[in-house]
């Protein structure tokens, strides 16, 4: 028994440092953003494309109130309930004391200024593919938004999901380093790919997930269960989405389907964002969706 206890102790002593190393947060090199200057006008486009207000505005906010990123929205998942924090430029209640480097590490690595992992309900696994200049522009625009002193509420999570350190392993499994699935196309299609994957993070809702919450890229945009538990999120692949590119672009402008039905649910927020984009960007999103390959398996 004593020998067994010693062996267990040695394995623990070896595995603990290895586990800490594997789950440690990784940050972006400061050289990446050191020479960049943000453009607030360009950052406004990034803000709408990335859907920031859809999650961080107060519940029910409309019009200009959507620019007050006071948080408070609840996101119920199989892992627990997440509450969007205040990310307004308020110096204490929000993120007004952050640097651009802090902002980049949060949005593209899911790491807080004090080195804690953020939960991937914050779609940094998509934003990690964004161009650094877009992140710098977004940060410049962020400074122009109104501050809010609303306090951020804590997430409601049970064991083991309340242990943030374990998210380092999740990131090792699921953080992409390139666009996938691979797709070929002209500049319009590639612009659409960037808007859908890196900024719009459409796959977060429209792609099925595995047991650990990672996206099933073999069924990219093939539809998924609704996170609220009611119904499904529709597929966007050409075999299921039969609208023309022009009809998709029009829908992203006014929220009306080709048969004149109006959008509802969470898509109301999405349309509020895409309606702010340039017409060429909405056309690019449509071109990308029409260029998608069919998924390897059907919608669940």
TrEMBL record:
Keywords assigned by UniProt, alphabetized: Heme, Iron, Metal-binding
GO molecular function, one term: heme binding
Gene3D superfamilies: Cytochrome c-like domain
SUPFAM superfamilies: Cytochrome c (SSF46626)
Domain called Cytochrome c: residue spans: 38-146, 187-293
Keyword Magnesium: no
This protein's name: Cytochrome c, mono-and diheme variants
């Amino acid at each position: 028994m004593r020998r067994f206890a010693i062996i267990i102790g040695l394995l623990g002593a070896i595995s603990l440092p290895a586990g800490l190393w594997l789950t440690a947060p990784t940050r972006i090199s400061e050289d990446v953003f050191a020479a960049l200057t943000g453009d607030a006008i360009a950052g406004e486009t990034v803000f709408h494309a990335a859907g920031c207000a859809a999650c961080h505005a107060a519940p029910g906010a409309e019009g200009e109130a959507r620019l007050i990123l006071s948080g408070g929205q609840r996101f119920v998942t199989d892992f627990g309930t997440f509450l969007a924090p205040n990310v307004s430029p308020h110096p204490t209640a929000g993120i007004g004391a952050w640097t651009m480097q802090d902002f980049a590490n949060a949005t593209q690595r899911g790491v807080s200024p004090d080195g804690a992992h953020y939960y991937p309900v914050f779609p940094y696994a998509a934003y990690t593919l964004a161009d650094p200049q877009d992140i710098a522009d977004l940060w410049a625009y962020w400074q122009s938004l109104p501050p809010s002193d609303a306090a951020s509420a804590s997430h409601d999570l049970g064991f083991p999901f309340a242990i943030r350190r374990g998210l380092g392993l999740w990131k090792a499994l699921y953080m992409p380093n390139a666009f996938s699935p691979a797709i070929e196309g002209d500049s319009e299609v590639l612009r659409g790919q960037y808007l859908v994957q890196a900024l719009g993070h459409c796959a977060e809702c429209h792609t099925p997930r595995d047991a650990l919450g990672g996206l099933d890229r073999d069924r990219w945009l093939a539809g998924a269960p609704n996170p609220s538990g009611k119904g499904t999120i529709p597929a966007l692949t050409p075999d299921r989405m039969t609208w023309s590119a022009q009809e998709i672009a029009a829908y992203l402008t006014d929220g009306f389907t080709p048969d004149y039905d109006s959008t509802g649910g969470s898509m109301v927020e999405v349309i509020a964002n895409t309606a702010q984009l340039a017409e060429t960007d909405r056309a690019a999103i449509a071109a990308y969706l029409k260029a998608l390959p069919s998924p390897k398996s059907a919608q669940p």
